[in-house]
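Hey, can you fold this one?
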Amino acid sequence: MDSFRFCHFVCAGTFLLFLINLSVIAQEPQVLTLEESIEIAKQSNLTLQTAEQNLKTAEAQVRAARAGLLPRITASGNYTYFKDIQKSVIQADGGFGFPMQGEEMNGMSPPSVDNESDVIELEFGAHHNVQGTVNLTQPIFAWGRYYYGYQAADLNYQAMQRDVDAAYNQLRLDVSEAFYGALVAQDFVRVARQSVSLVEEQLAVVEASLEAGAATNFDVLRAKVQLANAESQLIRAQNGVQTAKDVYKTVLNIPLSENILVKGTLEVPVNHKIPALNLDTLVQQALDNRPEVHRTQFTEHAARKQVDIAKTRSRPDLGFFSNYQISQNERLTEMNRIWSLGLQINIPIFDGFATRAALQQTESSLKQIQLGGTQVKVGVEFEVRTAYLNLRGAETIIEVQREAVTQARESVRIANLQFQNGIITTVALTDTQLALAQAEVNRLQAYHDYIVGLARLEKAIGQTLK
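Sure. Predicted structure:
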């Protein structure tokens, strides 16, 4: 019995340890890089999935339009049962209920009931009837109507492909912005913690100076106030990390409850230089590469095809048809087979001005697409110019902030020595520490703006800068 209890406790303990390990593993955050984040977003982003479904719809429309160029074959069949069959009678010396030549209808004598041999009864039809038909139709000449429809569907499919490319480019930018937003928020926390550590050291020095008679209670109070302010900034920075991560998770379309960490760097090498860029060249590259511009071009071509289709509706068209029919019932000794073929021409005469209205509608749609294409080009040029100027500005700020951080760190080092020797007050020391914290934040923000600005410029021109 004791050995059984011992085994029971061992098994239970092992199971509990297993559950604890699982909970620890489940609590470990998932660390993601930028490229990993982009791949996750590609699989789960709703905007990209919508664009891909639209592409599948356009592909199906191409197949449907191609069907208009091919023969159309239909088959039908039916079975009919007649409980009662139509009957007719004739006289032996007459026709099928009709008068003989030279006789009047009213003068016909009814068949004699007593003499059944004078009456012949005929049945027309059968009880069981089976019939099958196969029809084939093929348009021969319709002024290119069906071919234009196929071309329009194919151009629309290519436009949808550009929509997918544009959605992916926008997704990549959105992920990059959210990723680096979470990354800079994490670095802001690091800077805030450094500020708290500096103020705590300052408070310790002030309290020691107070005991030595080299400082006053005012200095201690000011240091404590500064520590409280630094801790408040740390709390805000930590809350900012959670907000930035929620934005990041939303872009990736993953649950907000998941524990996520981003792995990367905002540091830009000192010797890093973006290639010499000419603004006019960048604008031209954007007009040549952006999928949005290509989409408007394909859409415009497709709209022109729709105009051509509308014009053909007022013209005659020619088609070929063929029909093969079989029928069978219990009275036939051999199945009936009927085959026919022919040509059919349709000549529109008056359709209530529907063709004219359709033509006006397609021409108006074409004009709208052309105006939209012009707006897209203007928007692309504006986007390129804005991204270019922001990137150049961020590049300049980075150089300034690097020097500012170096100087601020040196100022804090000198100020600490001066404060310890009683040369400066706590006010001056606090000012140098605040200046260092602000310089660190500005430097990180400049790095963030530069990296995000580079991603925005690459998205704006539709290609990667090498």
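The beta strands are 30-32, 72-81, 86-91, 119-124, 128-141, 260-262, 317-329, 336-346. Let me know if you want another pass with a different chain boundary.
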